[in-house]
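Quick illustration, no need to memorize.
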Amino acid sequence: MNQHTPLRAEMLSAIELSLQQRGFAHKTPEQLFAPIDYTLRLGGKRIRPLLSLLAAHLLSESWREALPVATAVEIFHNFTLLHDDLMDRSPLRRGQPTVYCRWDDNTAILSGDAMCIEAYRALEGVARGEILAQVLPRFSAVALEVCQGQQYDMNFERRDDVSVDEYLEMIRLKTSVLIGLALELGAMSVGADEEICHRLYQVGESLGLAFQLQDDLLDVYGDEATFGKPVGTDIANAKKTLLLLYTQAQLPVDQRHELAQLLCLPPERNAERIERVRALYDRVGVRSYAEGLIEDYTRRALERLASVVPDEARRAELEDLFRSLMHRNS
């Protein structure tokens, strides 16, 4: 991602300070809170809280009023990662052992539960009661949608008939709605009206779809040195991504059978599996298809943003972040 502007750097510093001030490193019992502190210290791009603060900045000079919701969204996002890693049995997160590997399954479950509660506690920092009354039901509704998305993702592992449309709806729930919420709550925090908040949510939903599809693409076509993890992991795990589902739909029956056989190869043949599946992807032009969708969702996000804030200078920070996210290599 491009180097951050001075404003975004200031916002990121404020986010890190807000997370540190939650005091997880010093709470007891240590076995409950140390995994939370560990998870948050693993870092990450902090995209969601940054979007909350930038949404507030779009509409007001008082972007710090959105720090409580930004903090809550980031804690909740990391809670979902903590539990996802356990459900997926993923050994690494951001190059470090995941919580269930470093501690154990029960710790990951309980610390994750506590982390979800801590996300709600962060919302207690919303200064105005009437704004908190708007924030809480939206936070809860989207939190449940994220869980629905995760369940659909797990359901797909046992199905051979998942469509591209079903996949897009799953990633909308699992990924996009929280990005939309980040923008929506940032606007709510500075007193924006309901229509503006909803339209910013739609901006984030489109951005979130583009963001997840970019992840799918990088996993297959990214540069391993900059991507930060092995390329081809989704293929090695036979994960149902847009690329796989589109390819299955486009291939003739005999090649579809070949693809199914490749996905069943044993782990020691992963290198062969990745190379041959990628060749089938290339055969149907899945990269161009995915890039077209990413461009379409990004354009939709930018157009929706322009309709909310016609002042180009005012929305420049957010637009710059959008473009850097879509042209990232990790």
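The chain has one domain: 6-326.
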